[in-house]
C-alpha cells in the first residue's frame, strides 16, 4: 500500500480567490500569452527586475481538478493521498476574511475527498490571520470532519514565527484533538542571500535552498522556545525530510550546549533535546530526491517516522510528452536504494506508517 | 595519525589589528569587566538591541598563543594541525591595506608553523578587498612558503559572492598552483530570519544554522555559475561537512533539472552535476557533531574525501574546570560510531586523507 502525504491542491474556492487578486499571490493570464494561466505565489516573485521568475509558473488543471490528482495517483501506483492546500494558504488574508475563507476551503477539500472514498484524506487550512480563538474554533471543527487528518501550516504562524507564545492556545487545541501539523515552507530567505546573479538561476536557489532552510529555522525556533516541553504530544510532520534538520541536529544540539547566554540562564539543561524530539514528536516526509538525504532522515527519526510524498503538482515531468514524473521516481528510487532488501522498512515508509500514524482506512 | 584540518588562530599581527578597531570586527575590554577581553566579529554582533550576544565571546590566549594550540593538540592526541586565520579574515580592510596585511599575517602564520616542525601547517589568507592581481600575487607567493597548503576563504569573495566571474583569475591561479580553498562561513543570514525572539537564544541560530546555510548557498552559487566546468581541477574543502550540501544535493540537482528558466537556456544538460563535483572537487571536514550528519557526508563524498577537524578554539569545554573539549569528543565519537569496525576508513578520515590530500610529511 502506497500513501502520498505531501501532495497539494488549489481547490476551486481558492483558485477563484487568487484570480480576483492583483498582488502576490495571484493567478493571471498575461496579454502576450492569453492561453496560459500563470501562478505567482512566492514573495517578490512578480518583480520585473528578475524576469527569469517574474511570471511564476504555468498553472493547469493538475492544480485544481481532483480527477487529475487521482489519475496521477493511478499512474504512479499511489493508493491513497493526504491532500493539502498549497502555499501560501490563507496567510495573506485580512483577519476579518480568514475565518470564513478557511471554512469554505476546508469544506471544499472535504468534499473532494468524499468523492473518492478510501483514496483521499486531507490536512486542513487554518485562518492564521484571524484571532487565536477563531483558529481554535476551526481546529475543533476540522476534528469532526471525516477526512481531515491534521492541518498544514507555514512558518509564519500568527505573523511572528512558530516560536511565538501567542500560538500556545493553537498548539494546545491541536494536541488535544490529536491533529498533526504538516509544517511546510513558503517564505524562503531574503533575496539578498542569493546575490546579484540570482536572476540567471531561475527558481533553483529559492526552491532548492530557501525552502528547506526556512523549515529548518522554523523548527529550530520551536525547539528553542521549548514548544515540545509545553506540548509533549504535539506532532509535526516536516516537509522535505525536515529541510536540513537531520543533517544539522548534531550541530544544533552542540551549539545549544555551548551557548554562553543559554548557560547563564540555566537553559542548556533540563530540556528535551533534539534527538528526543526527532524520535517522539517529529515525522519526516520522504521528499528528498536522493538516497543520501533519505538515509540521514532515516537515521535521525527511524524508519517508523518517515512517510512517502511527491509534492505533486509541482516538479512536473521533465519533457512535455513524458507521462511519468521524474520527481516522483527520484523519491521512489531513493527509498528502494536506501532500504535495499529490507522490504518491511520500505513498506513502512511507502505507506504503512501513514496508515498507522494518520489512522487511514483505505 | 590524527590531523586537524579545521582549527583557527588569530596570530599576533591580526590581534593587534582587531585591537586598534572600534567597529565590528574588534577586540575590546569593557569598562565594567576590564579583566576580560571580548572578541566581537559577527555582522551586527555589537547591536545593543540584542544584549545576549552584543559582547561577542571571551577571547583568551587560546586564540593567539600557538603553544596553547599545541597543548590542546597533545591533550586530544592530534599529531598535526592545518591552522587557518579565523573569520572574518581581511574581508573588511580598505583595498590599499589588504595586500600588506595579508603578507604580514601569512608570514606570521608561516613562522608559527616553523616553530613546530611536522606538527603545524596552514591555509593562507588572501587580500580579497584588493585588486585581483594583488590576490593572484599573494597566491603565487603562498605557493612558495613551506607550510602553506591552500587558502581559507569566506563566502563574500571580492564582495559579490563566489559565483562572481571576476574571481576567475583567482580560481585559475589556485588551480594552477594546486592550492585548495578552505571555504568557511562568516556572514550568516540576515537577522530577520531569526524572528523577534532571537535575542533569547544567544548565538544558537546564527552559529548552528546561519553558518552552514551560508556555506550551502555559497557552494550552490558556485555550482550554478559552473565554476567547476571552467576549473575542473579546483579543489574546495567545505567547513562543517559542507554546511548542508550532502543532505540537499538531491534536491538541488532535482531543482536544476526541473527549472523552466535553465531549461529554456539549455543549462539543465551538458554540465557537471552535483554528485560528480562532490566526488571530484569537494572535500568535507568532519565537524558535524553527530553520526547522522557524518554518515550523510560520507555517503555524498566517500570516505577518501572526509577530514577530521575541531573548530578550535571555538566551542571550548562546557565547564570551566574541565580539560577535555566536549565539541572535539563529539566529532571523534561521530567518527567511531559511523565507521564501527571499519578501522581503515576511520583512519583515513582521522588523518590519512589529510596527509595524502594536503601532502603533509609529519
Automatic annotation (TrEMBL), chains A, B:
Domain (Amidohydrolase-related): residue spans on this chain: 3-360
Keyword Repeat appears in the UniProt entry: no
A GO term from the CC aspect: cytosol
Protein name stated in the entry: Uracil-5-carboxylate decarboxylase
PANTHER family for this protein: 2-AMINO-3-CARBOXYLMUCONATE-6-SEMIALDEHYDE DECARBOXYLASE, ISO-OROTATE DECARBOXYLASE (EUROFUNG)
Keywords recorded for this protein, A-Z: Decarboxylase, Lyase
Classification of source organism: Eukaryota, Fungi, Dikarya, Ascomycota, Pezizomycotina
Biological process terms in GO annotation: secondary metabolic process
GO molecular function per UniProt: carboxy-lyase activity; hydrolase activity
Keyword Membrane: no
Family: Belongs to the metallo-dependent hydrolases superfamily.
Pfam families with a match to the protein in the record: Amidohydro_2
Amino acid at each position: 500500500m502506497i500513501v502520498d502525504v505531501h501532495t497539494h491542491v488549489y481547490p476551486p474556492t481558492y483558485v477563484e480567490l487568487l484570480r480576483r487578486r492583483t498582488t502576490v499571490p495571484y493567478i493571471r493570464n498575461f496579454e502576450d500569452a492569453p492561453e496560459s494561466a500563470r501562478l505567482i505565489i512566492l514573495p517578490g516573485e512578480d518583480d520585473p527586475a528578475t524576469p527569469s521568475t517574474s511570471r511564476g509558473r504555468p498553472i493547469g488543471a493538475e492544480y485544481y481538478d481532483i480527477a487529475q490528482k487521482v489519475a496521477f495517483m493511478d499512474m504512479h501506483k499511489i493508493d491513497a493521498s493526504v491532500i493539502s492546500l498549497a502555499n501560501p494558504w490563507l496567510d495573506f488574508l485580512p483577519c476579518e476574511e480568514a475565518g470564513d475563507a478557511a471554512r469554505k476551503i476546508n469544506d471544499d477539500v472535504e468534499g473532494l475527498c468524499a468523492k473518492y472514498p478510501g483514496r483521499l484524506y486531507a490536512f486542513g487550512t487554518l485562518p492564521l490571520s484571524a484571532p487565536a480563538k477563531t483558529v481554535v474554533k476551526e481546529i475543533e471543527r476540522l476534528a469532526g470532519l471525516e477526512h481531515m487528518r491534521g492541518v498544514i501550516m507555514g512558518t509564519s504562524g500568527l505573523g511572528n514565527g512558530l516560536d511565538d507564545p501567542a500560538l500556545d492556545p493553537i498548539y494546545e487545541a491541536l494536541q488535544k484533538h490529536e491533529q498533526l501539523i504538516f509544517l511546510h515552507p513558503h517564505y524562503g530567505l531574503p533575496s539578498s542571500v542569493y546575490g546579484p546573479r540570482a536572476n540567471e538561476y531561475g527558481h533553483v536557489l529559492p526552491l532548492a535552498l530557501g525552502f528547506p532552510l526556512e523549515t529548518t529555522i522554523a523548527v529550530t525556533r520551536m525547539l528553542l522556545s521549548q514548544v515540545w516541553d509545553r506540548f509533549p504530544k504535539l506532532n509535526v510532520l516536516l516537509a522535505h525530510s525536515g529541510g536540513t534538520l537531520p543533517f544539522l541536529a548534531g550541530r544544533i544540539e552542540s551549539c545549544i550546549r555551548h551557548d554562553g547566554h543559554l548557560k547563564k540562564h540555566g537553559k542548556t539543561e533540563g530540556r528535551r533535546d533534539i534527538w528526543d524530539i526527532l524520535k517522539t514528536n517529529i515525522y519526516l516526509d520522504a521528499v528528498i530526491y536522493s538516497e543520501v538525504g533519505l538515509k540521514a532522515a532515516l537515521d535521525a527519526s527511524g524508519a517508523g517516522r518517515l512517510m512517502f510524498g511527491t509534492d505533486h503538482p509541482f516538479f512536473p515531468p521533465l519533457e512535455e510528452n513524458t507521462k511519468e514524473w521524474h520527481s516522483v521516481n527520484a523519491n521512489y528510487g531513493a527509498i528502494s536504494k536506501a532500504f535495499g532488501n529490507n522490504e518491511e522498512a520500505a513498506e513502512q515508509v511507502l505507506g504503512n506508517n501513514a496508515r498507522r500514524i494518520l489512522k487511514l482506512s483505505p
